[in-house]
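[[Per-residue structure]]
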Amino acid sequence: MKKIFLAAVFVAFVLRGSAQNLATVSPVLKTVNDAAQPFLFTLNTLTAENPRWNIHYSGSYGERTTGQFGYDGLGQQFGVKGYLGSRLTLYATAALGFANGGGVASAEQAEVIRDLVGGKGIAGFRLGAGLGLSRDWSNTGSAISRITASFDRANWRMAGNLRFEKAFNRTRDKLDFITSIGFQHRISNALYLGFEALGQDLEGFWEKDEAEGGAKLLIGPSINLEPNHSKLSFSISGGPVFYATRSQVTSPAAIREIGNIASGNGYTVRALVNFNLHR
């Protein structure tokens, strides 16, 4: 009996040491990466375990579909994202657009989102809702609201958004619907690969006179790189844009991720560099 007891103690000691060594060699199995902004078109909320404040710069290029800033071609955007405490996330952006024929326009938006379910830690499920305001290229103001959902595990993460927009202009839609979803799988300790899909102006499926040219869909690869012990992280996404419905009415000044011009299918590519102010 004594020999059996000593053997059991020895086996338990060996297994404990092996588990510790595995956790040391493969931390990916034990940790959840605290990405501040892993997706390009889908917004995730921050938690007390996430980086508190971040600034980012993103650039985009599109063909036959105006980009993030309402212009066909190159665009750029500056943003800030921070954790306010009490499961509140602030997200604000300012964009500049340079027209092909000359001239510069700007657009801004700001949102505050609160996690209603989860949100105390990075891992697990989070569900949030928020409100905000925006001003587009034609100086038209809008009230915006967003529902966010995310699920983070050690080896993969998923996030989705449903955004509602009410423009303070009678020539625009009564209410715009925009939805997105992103999924990434962890390839190494610092690299995630996956896909991202975006549905924009979805009211075009039931409104023939949708004011931004009709419903549009995008799906493409999503990459997120977060080097260890670095304040910088990088994301890139994009793909073909399909115009699912058509409308003769267009409002090219509205802030849209994948554009407003319903002249044919196109594509867009967008890259982001994020700087963590606290790491």
